[in-house]
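Troubleshooting: if your tokenizer reports a length mismatch, compare against these two reference records.
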Amino acid sequence: MIPLFVILFLGFIVLLSSFFTVKQQSSMIVERFGKFHSIRQSGLHLKFPFIDRIAGRVNLKIQQLDVVIETKTKDNVFVKLKVSVQFMVIKDNVYDAFYKLEFPHDQITSYVFDVVRAEVPKLKLDDVFERKDDIAIAVKRELNEAMTTYGYNIINTLVTDIDPDIQVKNAMNRINAADREKTVAEYEAEASRIRIVAKAKAEAESKRLQGQGIADQRREIARGLVESVDVLNKVGINSQEASALIVVTQHYDTLQSIGAETNSNLILLPNSPQAGSEMLNNMVASFSASNQVGEMMKLGNDKKPKSKRIEPDYNETLELNKSDEEQEEEQNE
């Protein structure tokens, strides 16, 4: 009974070892007596125990291999590139993929190194960043031509990272920062220019309006003076006396307004008892001198040809402009 049980147990084990399964997206290589026999796809399969053996499994999924290469550019800058290669085994070429290449990853890495080190030295550092897609296309083209023979299909190649030397990166950052600072300075200068121009225009407009206001004020003052003189003339006061009265009145009104203003600055004015009379005498003398000069010029124009001019007697004019005090001093002398 015991030997029979052992035989049945061994037979059951052998039967179980005759069946095997293949997972989805993979293939099994079966060899018989060390020689290739068949390729089994996904599902349940049978093999002869002790005769057939599973030599290996081939993955049919898309795989990715990341390759880091250090090379130099045309402007002698060393840079590290990370190239990601996406590939897969062609389902109909499982035999070639399994038997022709021992280490496919090493083979792909060698081709990537060869292509990148042939393409990057042709470009400057800035061009490497701008034309990384061209480098990826060149790698894919070279890999497809080489790896198709071994049953591999290159799906895509990507240059995922470009890492120059740290000093070069710092220099590039400084250049970028300086360029941005230059742009900021240009914008700030333009803004300052606009502010200055706007301020100048505002000041010019303010001065224009201020001048216009002063002109209007003086025009109205002159009209008021004319009206005041007319009113005084109607009551028997001549023009000179009216003008003197108006000037003296404005003088004392000004002094009164300065004294009434608490926040006014100190202003020194002639305020002696003789100030009003001196101001009045000077005005009367000026008016008289002006009238006499005008009459002399009229007489001269009537007696002589128009081409000749009569020069006024400035000594007489000066005598008229002298104050009463000076005339009294001359008389006493």
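Reference record two:
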Amino acid sequence: MTNEPKDGWPTSAPDRDSVDDRTFTVRFDQVSVRRAVIATVSILVAFSILKWLWDSAGHFIFLLMLAWLLSIAMEPSVAWLANHGLKRGLASGLVILAIILTTIAFIVLFGGIFVTQSAELIKGFPETVNSLVLWLNQTFHLTLDPTHILDSLNIDAGKIAEWASTFAGGILGVLGLVFGGLFDTLTIMVFGYYLSADGPRLRRIIGSWLPARMQKVFVTVWDIAVIKTGGFVVSKIVLAALSAFFHVVAFYLIGVPFWLPMGIFAGIVAQFIPTVGTYIGIAIPALFTLAVDPVKVVWIIAFATVYQQIESYIFTPRVSRATMDVHPAIALAAVFIGVELFGPIGAIIGIPLAAAILAIIETYRNRYELVPELTARTQGEKQRDDAFAGDPNFVIPAGKPLTGIATPDDPTDDLKALKDPHEK
């Protein structure tokens, strides 16, 4: 037996012995379907437009991002000058002028040495690799092939000559690089100035496009981006400058080859590449020094060890006192993603962007109170001073399940879950 189709939907007769003799018609609300289709199409169109914009103007957008980072890095100095009577536009101009003059002063004082040593480093890289491989083969009885190593690094004589020719002109080579990137630099400086000078006005303009409830969210996000992320950027720049200065002086006194570029490299890498940056910043100069005088490597490691302690316990707490911290694992992932998206400069801007995103998430997250079992700390766990450090008075053995433990709120529970099942 079959029922007549209803509304164009064929139906079949159900088994009368099992269910009632009824049919069900599934209908879709036309309004809901239309909204779902429109939403899907809108998302696809928006994604296509954003992809087209990025492909067409990605470089300019990247420059705007650098200008934004410059403006928030300038904010503490601009705010200090503005609070002492200067107009905000003048304060922003003075800060940018100070940055330009500092850069010019560095080029005048150390530009020639830096370019010369960089050119010598590039030209002598194959010879350095040969000397290092020879020392490793003789010391550890290895059979490494320096030619194979250079081929693996994709370095040949043609590339060496191309790189060296870039730096061979000394100051003229540096000026060539500067003029080559003059447009990008001017773009960053101009937009960085306007983002800093007209920051409050820009904030009000954007806020006028939003309803009142969204304006409160916007103000919070703006404050986080400018205060927290700006402080983070400034602290990293200051720490990188201190690190580079002390590494340059130490490498000069030790007699490290190419001490100026190596010291600057070590200082910057140690700050903007978390966790492994310190080791990379020391490993590269140590390898170049190893081919010249292995004894000097010991002095490099000794200096790096001492400076790391000074930086961790003296410089960092004072410089980063008012800024947010970023977990090393998240910071390292931000560096890799930044490099993948923007190249080498992405390693520098990746962490500040991650800091801004984390600060926003930290502000608007929803979290709940932990059950007693989750407040337990495990033996050997690092002591921390935050909301997730655990109860120091409630410590359990590591590697044991949390279920069935005697919690502080219910001390009558047994501790069977904490004991080895073979114990009597």
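Descriptive notes for reference record two:
- The two ends are 71 Å apart (CA to CA).
- The chain is about 70% helix and 0% strand.
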